[in-house]
From TrEMBL:
This is Ubiquitin carboxyl-terminal hydrolase. The gene is TBLA0D01070. The keyword Protease applies. SMART domains: ZnF_UBP. The keyword Metal-binding applies.
Amino acid sequence: MVECQHLTEIFSNNSKKDEFLTVYYSTKSTLSRTSVQDKLRYTMICSECHQLNNGTSFLCIQCGNCGCWNGSHSMNHYKSTNHPFGVNSLNGLLYCFHCNDYVFVEELLLTPKIQKYWNRISNETSIPTLTQAHGLKGLVNMGSTCYMSSILQCLMHNPLFVDLSMKGVHYNYCKIQDPMKCMSCAIDNIISETYGNKKTTPNEGLVDILNCSWRVNKNLAGYTQQDAHEFLQFILNQMHNDYKLNEIHDTNKQEMNGTDFKTMVNGNSSKEHLHLCNCLPHTIFQGFLKSIISCSECKAQSQTTIDPYMDLSLDVKGKSTLYECLESFHRTERLHDFTYNCKKCNKSQDANRQLSILKLAPIMVIQLKRFEHLITGSSVKINDFVEFPLHLNMKSFCTAPTPDTDPTNLNEKTNKSTPDMIYELTGIVTHRGTVNEGHYITYTKTADGVWYQFNDSVVMKVPLEQMLKEQAYLLIYTIRQFN
């Protein structure tokens, strides 16, 4: 720190000194009393590049502009306006851009005059408030852990997921209550760290999840890149296992009778496996697919199966829109390698199969299959851009349930017409790079409709137009309207 002649010049005039100190201490007071969430929203985002805490950010004493250091926007602001003083939004220190150094002014707190300034500060300043916290918290990359951070950001911004966690649905029944051994406890911890007032060491929640993942799955140990979609399945699998371990029972709903998550994902279609599990993952992510096998000649249906799913994996090769991907998934296909004997035609021939969605989940995860495994044993990445809508109507890809096919058996009489089912886009995971190496970035939308990019520890607001041009790998849609 230096003795600043520019500050000395201001202090030589009592009127200017009073005005300067009032603004400076008002700014410091507000920063010290503001929650982390409000700092992220108001005092750390650069007014120019909109990046969060890019190096550090400075609040201009003269006009309140917020400029970052790494992008030189704080320095550029000084050069264009000749406003020399800024307050570091992290520590409240005063910086002089004339001197290009911090200025020491703390001894002024010891003078009797501070009482006069403090009275004015207390009466005239207020802390920025939000109707709710938005969880704008970056996660430090601990060595190729972006696949993990991208999925965690999606879960941490899923309103249903966060709500159930904050209500202590798992914690109230957990027998372990150790985030190093229980994945659900680790998830609760990182959500508390993000939205609550829980005091933790930096990235404690992420470290807990990392250690818990390594303990459970040795393939995740180390610092090699993993697939984000597979990690999502792993997280949901572990949370389901935590539920089974604690033997939480709800007499108002049906249990899954010991069926594990892998069986559900692999699609065991026998009737005893169609009960709904009450764990958090299955409650908000699970749906059911209906598969119909029919004769390619007479169209007679001979076999109908119902399989659970946690996400939809769609082919993207040769497709340009998400609707095209869904239509390909729903389209009737000819099964050439399937031994089929039609009883009506009384002969063996190829069969047709059609997939449709019997039950949609409140949160729908769509994987766009960008990694293609070739017959040679190698893999390639499909980089084709697939246009995705902000609102998705799933009506055309669903079939109305009937009493004998509805897995919940809640409706004795079901309307045969399928209604409009509108989903809203709330999250995106993108992958940049090749099959063997790359980087994951997440985009999520807050409750006030603003999109943010989470690139490891860096969080920044992004315009809608930029987000819609991204090469999506995972899409998160939330149900909004059911007509």
